[in-house]
Design a protein that fits this description.
This protein is α+β, with helices and mostly antiparallel strands. The protein has five helices and six strands. A hairpin with a 2-residue loop joins strand 3 and strand 4.
Amino acid sequence: MSLQCLITLVSVALFVSIEAQENCANSGSPFAMSDRKGLVDAHNKFRSSNARGLEKDGPNGGNAPKASNMYKMSYSCELEAIAQAWANKCLYKHSGHDGLGENLYTVWPAQNNNSPLQDAPASWWSELVEDGVGQYSEDFTMTDDVFNAGTGHYTQMAWARTTEVGCGISHCRNGRKSQSIVVCNYREQGNYIDEKIYEIGEPCSNCNEFTGSTCSRAEGLCVKP
């Protein structure tokens, strides 16, 4: 076999492998690739805006401080499969899955499409604007007061060291009532009490969580290798 043929075969195999991973073929979810891209893009858009100091913190305050160590998220098929398996149970409560963060969103009646995927991240993030963090913790340390203020979905979305997200959706019926449930799982898990949601500072000035990290300067986000 010629070297050129070998390179071609390796390239094709690599493409197939990447394509299968991106399509999350075994996750059981109804998502198109555009749904997955929309979810991770929404998370990164909010994180970028936060990192650059452009997000309002609470109804009466200024903006949330800039973040020096906030990482860009990637989409995980593994997390999607976990989230979809839980969403399929049609239980609007946390799964308690060890080692993973989790956000839940529901809407009545069931939408019978994937439109709740667009609404869920915005709903979770709105906790920063509606409830705020800085009034409870100026240095953005996660405290009981911050969590009890109703900001737990936002703080998981903004947790600086979280680099992966994967989601699932189910449209459920209970008698005459129906609802759509969105589940998103996160790695690394956030919301640890007495730990920083993120470090305050100039964007990308502290990308040291993972060896070899780089910076997406336009977004103000660190990038895990």
